[in-house]
Amino acid sequence: MQPVHVIGGGLAGSEAAWQIAYRGVPVVLHEMRPGRATAAHKTGGLAELVCSNSFRSDDAATNAVGLLHAEMRRLGSLIMRAGDANQVPAGGALAVDRDAFSAAVTQALDGHPLIEIVREEIDGLPPDDWDNVIVATGPLTSAAMAEAVRNITGERSLAFFDAIAPIVHRDSIDMGVAWAQSRYDKSGPGGSGADYLNCPLDRDRYEAFVDALVAAETVAFHDWEASTPYFDGCLPVEVMAERGRDTLRWGPMKPVGLTNPHRPDEKPYAVVQLRQDNRLGTLFNMVGFQTKMKHAEQVRVFRMIPGLEQAEFARLGGIHRNTFLDSPRLLDPTLRLKAMPRLRFAGQITGCEGYVESAAIGLVAGLFAAAERRGEAVVPPPATTAHGALLGHITGGHVVTIDAGPRSFQPMNVNFGLFPPLERSVVKLPGGGRLRGSAKTAARKQALSARALADLDAWRGALPAAAE
Ligand SMILES: Cc1cc2nc3c(=O)[nH]c(=O)nc-3n(C[C@H](O)[C@H](O)[C@H](O)COP(=O)(O)OP(=O)(O)OC[C@H]3O[C@@H](n4cnc5c(N)ncnc54)[C@H](O)[C@@H]3O)c2cc1C
């Protein structure tokens, strides 16, 4: 049987190689380190963790990344097996001894009879006779590979920074203050004229907000990030605020073309707009609010905005070096490049974010590649599972609005906002009383998790048997 080629032995590539070999298909894993380094990796080990040593929460019942852990364990993940075996104490989180973890992954892959590890950079398009390839070269993809991918996908299809505006859970926005309306009621293609949620500020609130932005603590760029030019000028909101007190009022917070139905006679001094971020309509991003503020500062400062006092953030803003594709446009539902289907992408380069998410997308890419090689049906996981929800975000869940431009897709961690809502809301206690507040939120998450694990088991049970 011809091998599947996996390029990049990070979190995603290592997991993909393991899953492919587990299903009886030979793999060649190409990793450029230690011969060629990245700006963040320090060793030649596979699945090296470049920063923190945490896989975040291990709570499968009420935390989406904990649920992803549980699903990956059920799917025989090597990354989770090596993580569990090399845990260090971290409360409710799963943290690992990074060297022992990477050594365990390297040893498992090295010792597998169906896996060959080749230490080389793939510095252009893979040879034509590699008919089933996974590209998992990560956020720091080597320049030559990035150039090759850009040549087939187009100039604007590969970004080198993510400039992320915070994303808010729709049900945490106070609609007694905010309202739905597009500027000048424009509907545009596919719009309704009420596609944005608007949060109004009067003069005093605006001035206080600008003061808070300017005074907030920010995170500095790494040296090697600072020397990479922005793809397109995407200024952090606090930098805009520093440039002049009215800069935001003339920019992303301009109050024109909008009427507040709660106070129709009062013209807002400034308005924060939120735009729908996923097809489900459960997540909204703060338009133009990319930021380098520290996470705690973002929560404090953005909750000063009327209507967002209780905002729950699916992800906070950030700007950092990250090579990633405009995946919803470029990839098919099984992560293959539409323009060249022999190439499948996995890991952070697809627009997921985080060690665990990268490994999970590597896992499904590996399953897809192995099924294809074995001539079996390639069936994606249900959208109700954490794997399916994440895959949906990457390959089609994101909404691209006309004014957002082609690069509005930004990487995201797994979160419950990516899951299809429950068919019935979880508000009733067994005795007939109603759940409220955090108890209601926890019950909803538990129900989403239970549904995910049941659906994952059904999907897993229907997969063709692995040939060990
Ligand atoms: C500086 C930084 C810090 C981060 N910190 C965290 C964090 O603390 N927590 C977290 O959850 N996530 C973090 N991330 C995000 C992300 O989870 C990690 O980058 C994760 O390692 C991504 O997994 P991956 O498999 O997609 O890429 P990687 O793990 O980076 O693996 C890609 C591999 O491909 C190799 N490679 C690249 N180009 C080629 C080529 N042309 N030929 C052959 N091999 C190649 C690289 O050497 C590397 O081994 C961070 C990212 C960065 C850049």
UniProtKB/TrEMBL annotation:
Its main location: cytoplasm. InterPro entries: FAD/NAD-bd_sf (IPR036188), MnmG-rel (IPR002218), MnmG-rel_CS (IPR020595), MnmG_N (IPR040131), TrmFO (IPR004417). Gene3D superfamilies: FAD/NAD(P)-binding domain. It is an enzyme of class 2 (transferase). It catalyses: uridine(54) in tRNA + (6R)-5,10-methylene-5,6,7,8-tetrahydrofolate + NADPH + H(+) = 5-methyluridine(54) in tRNA + (6S)-5,6,7,8-tetrahydrofolate + NADP(+); uridine(54) in tRNA + (6R)-5,10-methylene-5,6,7,8-tetrahydrofolate + NADH + H(+) = 5-methyluridine(54) in tRNA + (6S)-5,6,7,8-tetrahydrofolate + NAD(+). Catalyzes the folate-dependent formation of 5-methyl-uridine at position 54 (M-5-U54) in all tRNAs. NAD-binding protein involved in the addition of a carboxymethylaminomethyl (cmnm) group at the wobble position (U34) of certain tRNAs, forming tRNA-cmnm(5)s(2)U34. Its EC number is 2.1.1.74. Belongs to the MnmG family. TrmFO subfamily. FAD binds at residues 8-13. It is found in: Cytoplasm. HAMAP family: TrmFO. Keywords: Cytoplasm, FAD, Flavoprotein, Methyltransferase, NAD, NADP, Transferase, tRNA processing. Its cofactor is FAD. It comes from Rhodoplanes tepidamans (Rhodoplanes cryptolactis). It comes from the Bacteria. This is Methylenetetrahydrofolate--tRNA-(uracil-5-)-methyltransferase TrmFO. The keyword Acetylation does not apply. Residues 4-376 form the MnmG N-terminal domain.
